[in-house]
Amino acid sequence: MTDEVRQDAIGRAWEDLVATARRTAAEGLVVGTSGNVSVRAGGLVLVTPSGVPYDRLTPEDAVAVDLDGNQVLGDLAPTSELPLHLQVYRNTHAGAVVHTHAVHATAVSTLVPEVPLIHYMAAALGGPVRVAAYALYGTDELAANMLRALRDRTGCLLQNHGTVTYGDSLDQAYDRTAQLEWMCRLWLTAAALPGYSPSLLSRSQLREVEEKLQGYGRPRPGT
Fold this sequence. Notes:
Low-confidence stretches: none
Strand order of the largest sheet: 4-3-2-1-5-8-7-6
Number of strands: 8
Shape: globular
Structural class: alpha+beta
Mean pLDDT: 93
């Protein structure tokens, strides 16, 4: 790959990252500069910088690190949650990571050890979504707690903090974040009515959904 082609690829990846970061703010998943987004670009990881409003980011603000956390591009400091992002990339095949402070998901993280099975879309995240034990933001301890909660999952909650999801692409990682926030909002809404308890899916019912989702969106045999 020539330097020009490499720079073009990094430029496109940065544009997509900034668009996704702005989407998290526009759709109420973050406030101000909270939350962060990252995406793989070859052997590098592009990340949102620390403390800069997403609407002010320009192509010249691109920030990238290698998988050891060494900054190789940009003058702005990477997000303080860099350890969290790097743990995902080092231990999965993730192409992108989205971290938010979504209100309903964060509220649920203070109430239960895993998100109740209120809806079958939990299967799209690999099963019941766990809550990672609280640790100070930006620390290796938080990243380690997150990694345990992500075992066999593509998303988790961070206790008293927010959400983490990953996917093959920024679109997929973002969609999983939105689905997780929606499920948390649904459970809180259903559980809020005095005198009623929401019905929940069983693990066997969720496994049925997981099996069905394996063929979702694929061409029919013979077509």
